Amino acid sequence: DDDDDDDDDDDDDDNEGRITEIAALRATLTETPTLYAPRLQLAQLLKAEADLTGVREAREMLAEHHALPSAVWEEWIADERRLATSAQELAEVRTLCARALGDGFSVPIWVATSQMAIQVHAPYALAEMGDGGNGDLDGVP
To answer: pLDDT tens digits for the chain (141 residues)?
Structure first.
């Protein structure tokens, strides 16, 4: 179908545009590594490219130099939590939550921290709460 071909071309153009923008942002950040907006934009573009290592590095640099708003922390925690499969990985996400709470109070981050503690230490409690034991609450990262 010709429409599908056009969609594929658009995806290729978007991908090429992101790659070009990523290179430009990296060049800017090489000169001035503490810039907030370009670092955040870089993390978002790298996420769109599924570059997990790059996203983590960009977010770590951002958090190293700036207090992050709750929404940025919540997205970061949600991304890491989706990938966490072991108790050790969940502990690392809980450490990330603690860092986030150091930047400011956030109910969703407190809830996520509590859920992960329950998921690791009392998974049967989550099953009793009716979420099948997977630790998810609607609308909470």
So the answer is: 555 555 566 677 788 889 999 999 999 999 999 999 999 999 999 999 999 999 999 999 999 999 999 999 999 999 999 999 888 898 899 999 999 999 999 999 999 888 888 887 877 776 676 654 444 444 444
CA–CA distance, 139 with 78 (Å, rounded to integer)? 11
| DSSP assignment letter at 86 | S
Q: At what angle do helices 52-65 and 36-48 cross, to 10 degrees?
A: 160
Rounded (5°) CA angle 58-104-80: 40
Cα–Cα dist 97/44, whole Å: 20
Amino acid letter for position 141: P
- State in Å, rounded, how far the first CA of the chain is from the last one: 39
Report the C-alpha gap between 66 and 108 in whole angstroms.
20
Q: How far is CA 130 from CA 27, 111, 119, 125, 133, in A?
A: 49, 16, 13, 9, 7
